[in-house]
Specification:
The complex is a heterodimer of chains A (454) and B (363). Chain A contains 14 helices and 14 strands. With 454 residues, chain A is α/β, with parallel strands linked by helices. Chain A has two domains: 208 residues, Rossmann fold (3-Layer(aba) Sandwich), CATH 3.40.50.1980; 173 residues, Rossmann fold, CATH 3.40.50. In chain A, a hairpin with a 3-residue loop joins β8 and β9. In chain A, α7 packs antiparallel against α12. Chain A starts with a helix and ends with a helix. About 3% of the residues of chain A have low confidence. Chain B has a single domain, classed as ABC transporter involved in vitamin B12 uptake, BtuC (Orthogonal Bundle). Helices cover 76% and strands 0% of the residues of chain B. Chain B contains 13 helices and no strands. In chain B, α4 packs parallel to α10 and α11 crosses α12. The chains are: A alpha/beta (454), B mainly alpha (363). Chains A and B meet through α1, α5 and α6 of A and α3, α5, α8 and α10 of B.
Chain lengths: 454, 363
């Protein structure tokens, strides 16, 4: 019996050691990095190298600067964007590239964007860009606004039939707005091989907030195939300006014009807002909790939390350390229960960013349905009547305008915000063509809800 | 000196022996051909713009270092099949072989035709670990995401086996006792799993539930090394033990009288089986029926001799799971665990109805 006990103890001890070893092997094989970083901020200019003066266009002023650098009259260090071909020097070769970009003839463009870790990077793409595949709402929409639909070869499911009608001629690769399944990726591969004669897929455009769907395996495929990946954090309304401008430029002259008008209009609105709010101090700023997809609370470093700051408001985590701790991160967290925000009901406003298609036939009914759908999560809060829904699919400047009107009604009126929206409707941007203020869901609050329900 | 009269002639016996050998050879050949065919069909199913012949060409070409025009159809097919279809196929073969070998092992040492790799509560331990990682975010190795789930499931699967080993020194451990302890452990872990699942939100609940069903979705080559190493070592060990399994299946008293330390042998087999099963279900979730039906199917052709049942069960288990995965992927878009249950339960039902001793039934 004692030898049996000794044997079994030995067996058990060996088993425990083996478990630890195998677990260690498992850790070695499977431990991966868990990148949840926020994106680096890029400037609001044309993010194509060769744009030496970092404005909104590539023109003769850029060629003049490059020539001055070649001639020694200016320093390359002062104009880092002058290196159009990214060879580390500014030479006549850069002039050749810039002239081709200005003329709209074929060349290789070097684009400043983000990598999937959120760091600034440079991507080479064939200019003019074509056979594009966009992924992620926050990059699909600005791309379509500047006419990119005509250059889209495929997409990973269209969730907004009307807004995204301009890419209906492209191939639906499957997946969803938030996931790329293996089948969808297989379709992407087959699309690329079917376009072999025209150079294959020109670029994959990625919304930074959807980066987790571009797995390491897909990255490897893209790298080996030489398919450029252009990533932007366009949920940030100011970054969206550069996104639309740059993507419009890359697809050629038609979209370049639309991108430029979109950027100019957006910057005009942004500057108008800034001129009225820049002097606000923290004491007279309103506080905001940002939400998305109805009941997901945006974490502190979420790109959505940039928008309140652009209109002179404070994100709530800046004034409540418990909230700051609870919502650390750069994504969004689902509210687990209807009282998830019970401890934070002293925020001045709750801003709910919700994507809603254009072409609405009964906005009042939609408004009531949206409000009632998840009101149980908010109605017990003191500030629930300050819940405001804003359509995430609007042009970024329109979102800022409606946000400013909601947060500072004494400085920005609803009619002013509507005029901004109308400017974009009249601007010739494909997703808004044929739409009016009564077919586009812009924003609404409690008072609008009550009026609609009546 | 008289000559006894045999119940049948010498020629009849030789013919019967040859027929048995032929049956076994046909079965093994069919299994190998079936596996090769299923791998090809799975490849074509996942990358449907090439033919079956091209799929085999691509696989063979990858092994021999053939390269294709970048971004051509075959270039992409090579990448997709090699990085997505083949890992699934390899996992299906390894998992099927391992679970079937474990099933044969368990049925012999417990002398119970209903025994399978999960009879001692391994599946519930693995479930508990995985669900804890998914719902609560608790991980033994403080790993997040998929790595945490796999590690938790692996370690969780071994806990019931460790408990049985530790209990074995305190109580008289018979096959029935082992199964009863396994059942008790299962109930305990299942109750913890249920508690976690009822307190979580719908999305997380779905993830946790899907893990329990058993799936090959998302498996890559990184999932293979641990499973391969444990399966190869484990199956080799089971093969080496197959003669002793024959002795063990005769019952405790007979085994002891033939010189086998049945208690020690049973514990050793349990630990071996636990590691093999844990290495599979940590990555795939719980896939049932392979461990039960593969050995029974094999016994129809080979008889009950474990020296033939064990290796052939590995092949049949690998084939069954490969076929289930092909059906799951191509026709049903369902997890392979569901398809395996849908295939396995009717087969098992038929086996029970048609069982007889002459076909190697052990019950």
């Amino acid at each position: 019996m004692s030898s049996m006990t000794k044997t079994q103890n030995t067996v058990a001890a060996i088993a425990v050691v083996a478990v630890i070893i195998i677990a260690g092997v498992g850790i070695y094989f499977f431990a991966g990095s868990h990148n949840d970083s926020s994106a680096e901020k890029l400037s609001s200019s044309l993010l194509v190298y060769g744009n030496a003066n970092e404005d909104l266009v590539m023109d003769s002023s850029d060629t003049a600067i490059i020539q001055d650098i070649i001639d020694g009259k200016k320093s390359f260090a002062d104009y880092p964007m002058a290196d159009a071909n990214q060879d580390g020097n500014v030479t006549a070769d850069d002039l050749t590239v810039v002239k081709a970009l200005i003329a709209g003839t074929s060349t290789t463009a070097y684009v400043q964007c983000l990598d999937l870790s959120g760091n600034s990077t440079v991507v080479a793409v064939a200019y003019p860009m074509k056979n594009v595949v966009p992924f992620g709402t926050n990059i699909v929409e600005p791309f379509l606004y500047v006419g990119g639909g005509a250059y889209t070869a495929g997409y990973f499911v269209s969730s907004y039939k009307n807004l995204e009608a301009s890419m209906s001629g492209a191939i639906n690769l499957g997946g969803s707005a938030r996931t790329i399944s293996d089948v969808a990726w297989k379709n992407f591969m087959q699309l690329d091989s079917s376009l072999e004669s025209s150079g294959g897929i020109g670029a994959l455009l990625v919304d930074y907030s959807a980066k987790s769907q571009i797995t390491d395996s897909y990255v490897s495929d893209l790298k080996d195939a030489g398919i450029p990946v252009i990533t932007y954090a366009s949920a940030d309304q100011v970054q969206e300006i550069a996104t639309a401008l740059t993507l419009g430029f890359l697809c050629g002259k038609t979209t370049e014009k639309l991108g430029l008008s979109y950027a100019e209009l957006s910057l005009k609105v942004y500057n108008e807002i800034q001129s009225k709010v820049y002097q606000k101090t923290d004491e007279n700023k309103v506080s905001v909790i940002n939400l998305t997809m109805y009941i997901y609370v945006c974490q502190n470093d979420s790109t959505f939390n940039q928008s309140p700051q652009y209109v002179g408001a404070l994100c709530y985590y800046n004034i409540n350390s418990a909230f700051k701790t609870a919502y650390a991160g750069s994504n969004s967290v689902k509210m687990e229960a209807t009282d998830a925000l019970a401890n934070y009901d002293d925020a001045d406003y709750l801003i709910n960013n919700r994507s809603l298609d254009v072409g609405q036939t009964d906005i009042d009914a939609a408004m009531v349905e949206i409000w009632d759908k998840y009101i149980s999560y908010f109605q017990n809060l003191d500030d629930y009547k300050n819940l405001v829904y804003i359509n995430n699919l609007l042009p970024g400047a329109c979102k800022l305008a409606y946000l400013a009107a909601a947060l500072y009604p004494d400085q920005f009126s609803d009619s002013w915000a509507d005029s901004v929206m109308q400017s974009f409707i009249d601007g010739g941007y494909a997703p808004l063509e044929g739409q009016t203020l009564s077919t586009i869901f812009t924003s609404f609050d409690y008072d609008d809800y009550v009026a609609a329900k009546a | 000196m008289t000559t006894e009269t045999l119940p049948c002639s010498k020629e009849d016996l030789v013919q019967k022996y040859h027929r048995q050998i032929v049956r076994k050879c046909i079965l093994i050949a069919a299994v190998i051909v079936g596996i090769v065919l299923t791998v090809g069909l799975l490849s074509v199913s996942t990358y449907d713009s090439i033919s079956l012949t091209e799929a085999y060409q691509v696989i063979w070409g990858h092994i021999t270092g053939v390269s294709y025009e970048p971004r051509s159809n075959l270039w992409w097919a090579d990448r997709y099949i090699w990085n997505r279809a083949l890992p699934r196929a390899v996992v299906a073969i390894l998992a099927g072989a391992s679970l079937a070998a474990c099933g044969a092992l368990m049925q012999s040492i417990l002398a119970n035709p209903l025994a399978d790799p999960y009879s001692t509560g391994i599946s519930s331990g693995a479930c508990f670990g995985a669900v804890a990682a998914i719902i609560v975010g608790v991980s033994y190795a403080d790993l997040a995401g998929e790595a945490g789930i796999v590690t938790n499931a692996f370690i969780g699967a071994l806990i019931p086996a460790l408990m049985i080993v530790l209990l074995a020194e305190r109580i008289h451990m018979t096959p029935a006792t082992m199964i009863l302890i396994g059942t008790a452990i299962s109930y305990f872990f299942n109750s913890l799993v249920t508690f976690m699942m009822v307190t979580t939100d719908a999305d997380t609940l779905k993830s946790a539930y899907l893990w329990q069903i058993g799936s090959f979705d998302g498996l890559t080559w990184s999932s293979v090394p641990v499973m391969l190493a444990v399966t190869v070592v484990g199956c080799t060990a089971v093969l080496w033990l197959s003669a002793k399994l024959n002795v063990a299946s005769l019952g405790d008293n007979t085994a002891i009288s033939l010189g086998l330390d049945i208690r020690k042998f049973r514990i050793m087999c349990l630990i071996l089986m636990s590691f093999m099963t844990a290495a599979v279900i940590a990555f795939t979730g719980i896939i049932g029926f392979v461990g039960i039906i593969a050995p029974h199917l094999v016994r129809i052709f080979t008889g009950a001799d474990n020296r033939f049942v064990v290796p052939t069960s590995m092949g049949v288990g690998a084939l069954l799971l490969s076929i289930a995965d092909y059906i799951a992927l191509s026709f049903a878009d369902l997890p392979v665990g569901v398809i395996m249950a849908l295939i396995g339960s009717p087969i098992f039902f038929i086996l029970i109805i048609w069982q007889r001793k002459s076909t190697g039934a052990i019950y």
